Design the sequence.
């Protein structure tokens, strides 16, 4: 049951951005743009309009979105029903990950994994990095979809990992704050100006809390810079942190992938840079069954796309 076009529409509605929709689905931005142009020509009407705050659905777009969501729900229920019959006695794989990035990744890969590896029954458990890794140690989870900052060796020598993709952190400053600039013409792959924290002293800072993977590394970076953030809000959700920044509540540091030129946010590079990487983590010495190896290979293929 191919609902690729419907998934495009749902992602556009959820992200409000062609770029972010493409990132969420793991496809190129031109693929989304070309699909949107083609479907609007087919219907002879606009499904979305562009505004300062992102993409807004037209009435036709709302109708198409509602139909897309219904088709997605029918597809998902159909696969669940069929797997319920076919997977009696199947291998159960439990994947742990954060309620934010981990859950989004699982949602993105669930359909492909279920279709290509029908002998596996997949389960997802929400948990933050250290708790998730402990679940792997205790064999309560088979693997973890994690984001790591610093040295993964800090998590112990009894785990194995496969790195999938790296992300750089950026300082995000709302328009109107000191050092902010018009970034509407900046592309996500363009170099950003370097952050000058001396000009941002005492500004409200939207902070990650200890559950965020890069918290410890960020605190060390602040100490090296002699900077003490004026934390007015803390969250374990990087998406919530960026939304707070985007709404003008303060400055903050998030992954570069969040930046969109449609947002009223000025991005800056960190000096020295801080990078985090996504990884698949599992227990060292675990039984590498053919099913588990097939799952790892498929996960790597999807996540590195």
Sequence:
């Amino acid at each position: 049951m191919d609902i690729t076009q419907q998934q495009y529409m749902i992602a556009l509605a959820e992200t409000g951005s062609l770029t972010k929709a493409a990132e969420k689905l793991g496809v190129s931005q031109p693929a989304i743009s070309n699909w949107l142009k083609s479907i609007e020509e087919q219907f002879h009407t606009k499904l979305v309009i562009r505004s300062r705050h992102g993409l807004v659905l037209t009435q036709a777009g709302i109708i198409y979105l509602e139909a897309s969501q219904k088709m997605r729900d029918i597809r998902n229920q159909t696969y669940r029903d069929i797997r319920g019959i076919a997977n009696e006695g199947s291998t159960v794989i439990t994947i742990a990950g954060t309620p934010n990035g981990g859950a989004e990744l699982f949602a993105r890969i669930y359909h492909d994994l279920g279709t290509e590896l029908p002998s596996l029954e997949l389960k997802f458990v929400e948990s933050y990095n250290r708790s998730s890794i402990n679940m792997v140690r205790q064999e309560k989870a088979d693997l973890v979809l994690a984001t790591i900052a610093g040295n993964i060796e800090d998590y112990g020598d009894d785990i194995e990992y496969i790195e999938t993709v790296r992300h750089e952190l950026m300082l995000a400053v709302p328009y109107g704050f000191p050092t902010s600039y018009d970034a509407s013409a900046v592309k996500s792959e363009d170099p950003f100006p370097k952050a000058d924290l001396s000009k941002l002293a005492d500004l409200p800072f939207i902070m990650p809390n200890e559950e965020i993977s890069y918290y410890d590394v960020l605190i060390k970076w602040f100490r090296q810079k002699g900077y003490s953030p004026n934390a007015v809000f803390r969250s374990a959700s990087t998406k919530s942190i960026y939304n707070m920044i985007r709404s003008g509540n303060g400055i903050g540091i998030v992954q570069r992938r969040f930046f969109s030129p449609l947002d009223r946010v000025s991005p800056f590079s960190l000096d020295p840079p801080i990078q985090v990487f996504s990884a698949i983590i599992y227990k060292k010495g675990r039984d590498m069954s053919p099913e588990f190896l097939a799952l790892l290979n498929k996960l790597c293929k999807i996540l590195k796309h």
